[in-house]
Write a structure and sequence with these properties.
single chain; 2 domains; five-stranded mixed sheet; two-stranded antiparallel ribbon; 18 helices; globular
Length: 347
């Protein structure tokens, strides 16, 4: 039997939102079936989908307010998605970012589908869940669409009062909230008409928004990250084929940035003990730290090619707590400072 899972980062955000409403964090983590420490160490630690939805149900049962789905979206930033988030931020346009998101969603939630298609009104981003009907699934969809809209507004610098960029409409396949006040909050959040009991759950975005350039659009960095995304999938090392071990470890490290890479987290993700992971890499002439350095340097070099990106931003994206720590590491990798690696804009 295949169990659908969702990354712990999403469950952690639901729990944080619940605690803002006065719920017990310990109770919610118990419902999730993992610990806060596990989620902190590995944002992609798998949580059973039914446990994640049970956390949502617990929050709604306690608050009696589906507007917490909007609070969840406000507590989320695209930077929390690591490499995929950065790839979306550096896409050439809103449409490019959404198409990338649709291709990448399974790396984070195996039971969620995102489809991007065109219609007479513009572009439709439809989100669906394989979970059984219920409050938890409804919240998963409502918070997911709200999260996507928040990310679009952030990366495209859309003002709250920019009616031309607002969705044409937002649809939900399930029923409307019982409280008219809650439905009104949803309408204000999306700045768009709402349609419940629709054929699907979707954001319908105007054509004028699709080609809008993003604040951090960077063709070279986006191309590098998009190429990297092909390897950012849950994998298990094949004991009969060790030729790809180094590459798979590199992919697992990249997938978890900007979280500081930990051998234990990566080993568990690949179905290995730390000792087995270290042995396999040693047999290929490298260490875990070597692979981590390679992965971090790849991202750093791609980002430093853009003169508009600061060293502090590169440090944060590659998992360093301080720019000074990143600078020391970069000089160790390349024998030069990060500033020396930044391409100066032409005059």
């Amino acid at each position: 039997m295949v169990h659908r899972t969702i990354s712990a980062m999403f469950t952690e955000r639901v729990i944080f939102t619940g605690t803002q409403r006065g719920l017990s964090a310990a109770l919610l983590w118990s419902e999730a079936g993992i610990t806060a420490d596990q989620a902190r160490r590995d944002p992609r630690h798998p949580v059973l989908e039914e446990r994640h939805l049970a956390v949502w149900e617990r929050v709604i049962d306690a608050t009696r307010d589906r507007a917490v789905c909007l609070e969840y979206a406000r507590n989320t930033t695209i930077d929390g998605y690591g490499v995929i988030g950065l790839a979306c931020k550096t896409a050439p346009s809103v449409a490019g970012a959404l198409e990338l998101l649709a291709r990448s969603v399974h790396a984070y939630a195996s039971g969620v589908e995102i489809e991007v298609r065109t219609s007479g009104d513009g572009l439709v981003l439809a989100m669906s869940s394989l979970a059984p009907p219920g409050v938890g699934r409804n919240c998963q969809i409502e918070s997911g669409l709200a999260e996507v809209w928040s990310a679009i507004r952030a990366i495209a610098a859309i003002d709250a009062d920019d009616a031309r960029a607002a969705p044409v409409r937002v649809t939900f396949a399930h029923e409307a909230p019982d409280e008219a006040r809650t439905a009104a909050q949803f309408g204000r959040f999306f700045s768009a008409p709402l349609v419940f009991r629709s054929r699907d759950s979707s954001l319908v975005l105007p054509e004028s928004l699709l080609a809008r350039p993003l604040l951090r659009a960077d063709a070279a960095l986006h191309a590098f990250l998009t190429q990297t995304l092909a390897s950012l999938r849950p994998v298990q090392l094949d004991s009969d084929d060790e030729r790809g071990d180094r590459e798979r470890v590199r992919a697992a490290v990249l997938e978890r940035l900007p979280q500081p890479p930990r051998a234990g987290v990566v080993a568990r993700a690949l179905g290995l003990s730390v000792r087995s992971l270290q042995r396999r890499l040693f047999e290929q002439g490298c260490t875990f730290d070597d692979v981590v350095g390679e992965a971090r340097r790849e991202v750093a070099d791609a980002m430093l090619a853009n003169p508009d990106i600061t060293v502090a931003e590169v440090a944060a994206a590659t998992g360093f707590s301080e720019p000074s720590a990143f600078s020391r590491a970069y000089k160790r990798w390349t024998t030069r400072s990060p500033r020396a690696g930044i391409v100066q804009p032409r005059r």
